[in-house]
Design a protein that fits this description.
- The complex is a heterodimer of chains A (157) and B (94).
- Chain A is built from three helices and eight strands; from the N terminus they run E-H-E-E-E-H-E-H-E-E-E.
- By secondary structure, chain A is of the alpha/beta class.
- In chain A, a hairpin with a 4-residue loop joins strand 2 and strand 3.
- The chains are: A alpha/beta (157), B alpha+beta (94).
- Chains A and B meet through strand 4, helix 2, strand 5 and helix 3 of A and strand 6 of B.
Chain lengths: 157, 94
């Protein structure tokens, strides 16, 4: 796996991800993580919430279209950031990547998953795909109160 | 025909950390095959085991999705840009 294996996230951003998961319950939420990737750490600076485009099965699937992908990249560029990963929720399911998650994953990105049980956001974890695509590797999430307060990016929601 | 292939951020570590790679190719498919010949580690992220482009890998010639052109047989011309644009998908088991 290339790059750092630790994801720094401020408490307000972690709370925003949880709130998005609770808001869309029982459907899955999704969005982009905008931030900076450095040798020893990856830090999320802003979120770019998106609409789950899987209208046929939104309770257990999410989809981000190439157009939304490009919008997220554009938002990151305008802020001098990169899209460093993606988040989504698992309604009434643990924050563990599914086989479907793995089959559709890209390397390098951080994949944050928040579990939501009966409208209450619970555990939040992050994962990265291994270079051989065979498995997800857990990534430490450091929720750091010292980071500056987050401001939500205008988004495609 | 010299075409530029734009590499998305998650694949740059497998392409010498380059943002783009120039290829000499007559079709989009030829350009992508030259890219994966040069950077072998890219292949498993772009193609399935039976050699088809993965469903969540979108390929654009300039601003057109090649699914609406001639797919991998889409002809290129000098100065064209090929973009590899990810779709992001997933979801809980059920």
């Amino acid at each position: 796996m290339n790059g750092s294996a630790m994801l720094a996230l401020s408490p307000p951003l972690a709370e925003q991800i949880r709130a998005h998961g609770a808001e869309t319950y029982p459907n899955e939420c999704c969005g982009a993580l905008l931030g900076r990737d450095e040798e020893s750490r990856r830090e999320v600076k802003e979120l770019f919430p998106l609409v789950n485009r899987r209208g046929d099965s939104p309770r257990n699937r999410f989809s981000i279209t190439p157009e939304d992908f490009r919008a997220a990249e554009q938002a990151a560029r305008e802020r001098g950031l990169d899209v460093v990963g993606w988040y989504h929720s698992h309604p009434d399911h643990p924050p563990l990547p599914s086989e479907y998650d793995r089959e559709h994953a890209w390397p390098w990105y951080s994949y944050v998953i928040v579990s939501v049980e009966k409208s209450q956001a619970k555990q939040l974890r992050s994962w990265r795909l291994s270079d051989d695509r065979m498995r997800f590797v857990p990534e430490e999430v450091a929720v750091e109160p010292r980071l500056p307060a987050a401001r939500e990016a205008s988004s495609n929601r | 025909m010299t075409v530029k292939v734009i590499i998305p951020t998650p694949l740059r570590p497998y392409a010498g950390k380059q943002e783009s790679v120039d290829c000499n190719a007559k079709t989009v498919g030829e350009a992508l095959h030259k890219l994966t010949s040069q950077f072998g580690e890219l292949e498993k992220h772009l193609y399935t085991d039976d050699g088809r482009i993965r469903s969540f890998v979108n390929v654009y010639l300039n601003d057109e999705d090649i699914r609406y052109l001639e797919k991998e047989n889409t002809q290129t011309k000098d100065g064209d840009t090929i973009s590899i644009v990810p779709s992001i998908a997933g979801g809980a088991v059920r």
